[in-house]
Design brief:
single chain; disordered N terminus; 2 domains; 5 strands; Arc Repressor Mutant, subunit A; three-stranded antiparallel sheet; mainly alpha; disordered C terminus; elongated; two-stranded antiparallel sheet
């Protein structure tokens, strides 16, 4: 029972129990029980048959609109009223009264167990449910998105192919055709390295990176992919300059972000011993 039902003046506040219209009382069931427990109403004037009939009618009319926990509370209230009424009908010292008191005690224990079970059920019902409120991995499932690769294998075909590897004629398989990637005739890093070292021998003060690019020839514009070839020239020249810098042969400097990169020899004396070449034949104009 709720604490509010112990106070007759507050029993009707927020009450959801059915309304009764009996001889000597008219009001909610919870208020009737509160008055009876406080001995402020004579239960001998209350017809238990009429009470049970009206309670049954209220239970049938409530249907699915009233929670099962509330309907259980109504039955518990009615059981308390029957027990209180039974104490008034029998003499206090008669064997029947003692047997009724023992039966009432067992009924009270059952009602208390029912009330505890209802409280536990209400607590369990309020907990988060796995797969609805919480998830096993702590986050919602990815709906409609496949993250793993999916493969379909013909098991029979796979087994036959495995068996074929052990056949005597497996060595006759033609393996002469070997896949070779297409050649795009791009600039290499080794050529860029030699070009940088040769040009720095004739330019001890160095120059910007673009001055070390390979010269364009007349066939560049007629090649299949001239843009790719030009990008390979920039990439190979930059990689060659980084490798030479790592080895300590040249120095790379850049005044600020996105400004030209300047190359100069790290050791001018070593560069002076190299044979200078014509810059016009190696770099772009």
């Amino acid at each position: 029972m709720d604490a509010d039902t112990d106070d007759p003046e507050r029993a009707g506040e927020g009450d959801t129990s059915p309304h009764l219209d009996l001889a000597g009382f008219a009001g909610p069931l919870a208020q009737l029980l509160a008055l009876a427990r406080a001995q402020e109403i004579d239960l001998r004037e209350i017809s238990l048959a009429a009470l049970v009939d009206q309670l049954a009618t209220a239970l049938a009319a409530s249907g699915h609109t009233t929670p099962l926990a509330h309907q259980g509370e109504w039955v518990v209230m009615a059981a308390w009223l029957v027990w209180l009424r039974s104490r008034l009908l029998l003499p206090p010292e008669s064997p029947a009264q003692q047997e009724a008191a023992a039966e009432a005690g067992r009924l009270r224990e059952n009602l208390l167990a029912l009330q505890a079970a209802q409280g536990l059920a209400a607590w369990l019902g309020a907990q988060p449910q796995l797969g609805v409120d919480v998830f096993a991995r702590g986050e919602p499932e990815w709906v409609g998105t496949a993250l793993a690769a999916s493969y379909q294998v013909d098991v029979v075909g796979f087994l036959w192919a495995s068996v074929a590897l052990f056949d005597d004629g497996a060595g006759d398989v033609n393996t002469s055709v070997v896949y070779r990637p297409p050649r795009h005739d791009l600039h290499s890093t080794a050529e860029a390295r030699e070009r940088i070292m040769a040009l720095l021998a004739s330019q001890p003060d160095g120059a910007s990176l673009e001055r070390f690019l390979p010269a364009r020839d007349a066939d560049d514009d007629r090649r299949a992919r001239p843009g790719l070839r030009r990008r390979s020239a920039w990439a190979s020249t930059l990689l060659a300059s980084l490798e030479l810098t790592r080895q300590g042969d040249i120095d790379l400097t850049q005044a600020d972000a996105f400004l030209p990169i300047h190359l100069r020899p790290a050791n001018v004396e070593v560069m002076a011993n190299r044979e200078p070449v014509d810059a016009g034949t190696l770099v772009t104009g």
